[in-house]
Amino acid sequence: MLTSCAINGRAPYDALLTHGFVVDGQGHKMSKSKGNVIAPQKILDTLGADILRLWVASTDYSGELTISDEILKRVVEGYRRIRNTLRFLLANIADYDHAKHALPVEQWLAIDRYALALTQKLQDEVKADYERYEFHLIAQKLQGFCSEELGGFYLDILKDRLYTAGADSLARRSAQNALYHITHSLVRLMSPVLSFTGEEVWAVLSGKDDVSVFEEQWYALPDAAMSSVEISDWRAIRDVRELVNKKLEEQRAAGAIGSALQAEVDVFAGKDTYALLSKLNDDLRFVFITSRANVHLRDGGELEVKVTPSTHTKCDRCWHYRSDVGSDAAHPTLCGRCVSNLHGSGEARRYA
Question: Quick one: 67 exposed, middle or buried, by C-beta within 10 A (0-12, 13-18, 19+)?
Answer without folding.
Answer: buried
